[in-house]
Design a protein that fits this description.
This protein folds into 2 domains: 246 residues, no CATH class; 191 residues, no CATH class. The protein is 50% helix and 11% strand. It has 18 helices and 11 strands. The two termini are 34 Å apart.
Length: 450
């Protein structure tokens, strides 16, 4: 097992969360918790189980008391947690265009002396950390931690999912979610982290100024069934994550580290896709010359380029969606007849057995990709395999393909061979990067979750 696969197994909890926008990545999580997440004490698990049971039975009537229990006892915030009248009015954000004010319902407040005291206590408990202090200088502290206010929170009406868009008190012409409202408050008060909860649903929100909002949602009613989910919740939001660790390991710094790494991966993926696009366009141009200009006769350069870019973005999207299990890649029929990731493996196997030259005489790979994109666009209603119709412009059958069907047939399938060869080269590069692509590809792939 590779090091990357082992790390992914140790941090499979990331896949248990519903995320929107940037979130922690496996490399960052594995740096902080190289042996996996710490276990939650049995007594704490029992407390959470009982509290969630009472909350569900009361249909939310005990939401406030359960929320306070989770913050103060489970996460260990104790005296650092402020709520209700103890939260100062300054922790609010007016929204003049809607005639509203968003205010924090609870907050995590850490005085500078408290932070210094707890860091010293942790240092004494872990021995001589002089080497670590040199490796993580004070300059690594995130650009903003919100000062003494480390986290702001909003309470939602019972049964409100944090990412569900609703019209609240005439908030806007278009509905917004509780996460969106909290993001406005966080940026206004320059506090990067927040929590949204109704007692059952818990959303950790990252919304620094000038950056994309990220959110991860936990279902508290499943914490007893998914202990790794509870471990992640406690590990990320416990008291020491805000004031008892090195600056580089504070929660805002972890989000910043993951976000910057994702941006680098996205940039590299863009470079690889551009290279693959150039390869495919060059190959099509060569085939057109071999056909004395009849292959692309009447097709503008813009149409050729747009079609090639669409093909490559489809491949990137599909590889990412399959990697994240947003498509039924664990279904035997899908895996054998549709999967792009499996197709790449099959092409490699055939090339190793009979040589890559034999692939020049096959068109099945191209038609398989077309079948999958059309299935995603229009849906599949078969007794053995069902896919909803997602629509969208990316998977809409190419207008060029529809209008040039006769010309493509007359060309003897040569553009199919060109696309197939280029996709093998570009697809390999895309597949290596796709699992870590979050900022760009995830925004499109998240539509499959709706």
């Amino acid at each position: 097992m590779s090091a990357g696969s082992a790390a992914a197994r140790r941090h499979a909890w990331i896949d248990l969360l519903q995320t929107s926008g940037p979130f922690l990545t496996v490399p960052v999580a594995d740096r902080v918790w190289p042996a996996g997440l710490p276990a939650v004490p049995a007594a704490t698990r029992a407390t959470v189980r009982a509290a969630m049971g009472e909350l569900i039975a009361s249909r939310g009537a005990r939401a406030q008391s359960v929320t306070d229990l989770v913050l103060r006892e489970v996460l260990g915030w104790q005296d650092l947690a402020l709520s209700g009248a103890d939260v100062p009015a300054v922790l609010s954000a007016p929204v003049p265009e809607h005639g509203l004010t968003v205010s924090a319902d609870f907050a995590l407040h850490v005085a500078e002396t408290q932070a210094d005291d707890e860091v010293e206590i942790n240092d004494l408990g872990e021995g001589d950390d002089s080497d670590r202090d040199e490796a993580v200088p004070p300059a690594t502290r995130p650009a903003t931690t919100g000062g003494p206010w480390r986290l702001l929170g909003l309470r939602c009406p019972w049964g409100t999912h944090p990412l569900t868009r609703t019209v609240t008190h005439g908030w806007a012409v278009s509905a917004v979610s509780a996460v969106d409202r909290l993001a406005v408050l966080l940026r206004a008060r320059d506090v990067p982290l927040g929590l949204v909860t109704d007692g059952r649903w818990w959303a950790l929100v990252w919304a620094p100024r000038g950056r994309t909002t990220g959110a991860a949602v936990w279902d508290g009613s499943l914490w007893s069934e998914e202990p790794e989910s509870l471990q992640a919740f406690v590990a990320l939001l416990e008291r020491r994550r805000f004031l008892g660790v090195d600056d580089a390991d504070l929660l805002p710094a972890l989000f910043d580290e993951a976000s910057r790494a994702q941006e680098e991966v996205t940039t590299e993926l863009g470079r690889q896709v551009r290279a693959a696009v150039e390869m495919l366009v060059t190959r099509l141009d060569e085939l057109d010359r071999d056909a004395d200009g009849t292959l692309l006769d009447g097709v503008s350069d813009d149409d050729v380029y747009a079609g090639v870019v669409t093909v490559m973005m489809r491949v990137v999207f599909l590889l990412f969606a399959e990697e994240r299990r947003l498509l039924p890649s664990d279904d035997a029929r899908y895996d054998a007849s549709y999967s792009v990731g499996r197709l790449l493996d099959q092409l490699r196997e055939r090339a190793s057995l009979a040589g890559e030259q034999t692939l020049e005489h096959r068109t099945g790979a191209w038609h398989r990709v077309l079948a999958l994109t059309r299935a995603l666009h229009a849906g599949v209603a078969h007794e053995d395999l069902r896919l909803p119709a997602y629509g969208g412009g990316l998977f809409d059958p190419l207008p060029v393909a529809r209008s040039r069907r006769r010309r493509a047939a007359a060309a003897g399938g040569r553009p199919h061979r060109a696309a197939n060869a280029a996709r093998r080269a570009g697809g390999r590069a895309a597949r290596r990067a796709a699992p870590a692509v979050l900022p760009g590809a995830r925004r499109g792939a998240d539509r499959l979750c709706l």
